[in-house]
Amino acid sequence: MGLLAPGDVVGDRLVVQQPLGQGAYAEVCRVWHEVLGRQAMKVFKHLTSDARTRELLGEAQLLSRLGHHNIVRVFDAGMIRTAEGARGYFTMEYLPGGSLHRLLGYSRASDVWSLGTIALATLELDRIVLATLELDPRQRISHAMELADRLRARHAPATPHRRPEPPPAPPDCDRGPEHTAAQAQATRALALARRLGGLAEAAAELDRAVRRCPCARGRHGYRVELWRRGVVM
């Protein structure tokens, strides 16, 4: 069950139509604004104080300052208040067509960003990507150019990146000794990945960690993958 259901009303002008997706810290749904029409709304998962919610809404403030044809426009931002605390949200342009993960048919990492994103969109790096990518080279280059253009605009004001969020732990993990050992292996894999010439060794170490506990693909594992793609790019 999502944070909001179809038919829910937010404020006095937004009606939830359908969920679109979610990440580690927020959900996105399609909403209808009574004046402006169809929009996308990002809702933070965690209930916090008003002050903390305003900090989280800094993402909306940042987007509102970036005027670029490859970056969505933000329309509004606010809070949904409950007895347990406040939950922030902001509305932005709705762009139909699915996500980058759906386009690439690839879901090994929960998030992609910076050079890892461009590498994921352009390079056929391993058998998983080779088996799933259906984009021809011209399409991959086109998407990469758009992504690079967004990154250029994103860095122009010298604003900091939000720290990437790892995927949540699988619900069946008991966090026992194997979990602890796998996390230690994944940490070593990340250190190996950052060492010159250590990417192959890092991938092998990560695979061993994942066999011990799927959680290893999370906090450190997906950073190993993105580091690898960024380096290759």
From TrEMBL:
Single GO MF annotation: ATP binding
Entry-linked SMART domains: S_TKc
Enzyme nomenclature, EC number: 2.7.11.1
Species classification: Bacteria, Bacillati, Actinomycetota, Actinomycetes, Pseudonocardiales
Positions of the Protein kinase domain: 14-233
Official protein name in the record: non-specific serine/threonine protein kinase
UniProt-listed InterPro entries: Kinase-like_dom_sf (IPR011009), Prot_kinase_dom (IPR000719)
Gene3D superfamilies, per database record: Phosphorylase Kinase, domain 1
Region annotation Disordered: where it falls in the sequence: 154-186
Keyword Metal-binding belongs to the record: no
PANTHER family: MITOGEN-ACTIVATED PROTEIN KINASE KINASE KINASE 20-RELATED, SERINE_THREONINE-PROTEIN KINASE NEKL-3
This protein's record includes keyword Lipoprotein: no
Organism for this UniProt entry: Crossiella cryophila
Enzyme class: transferase
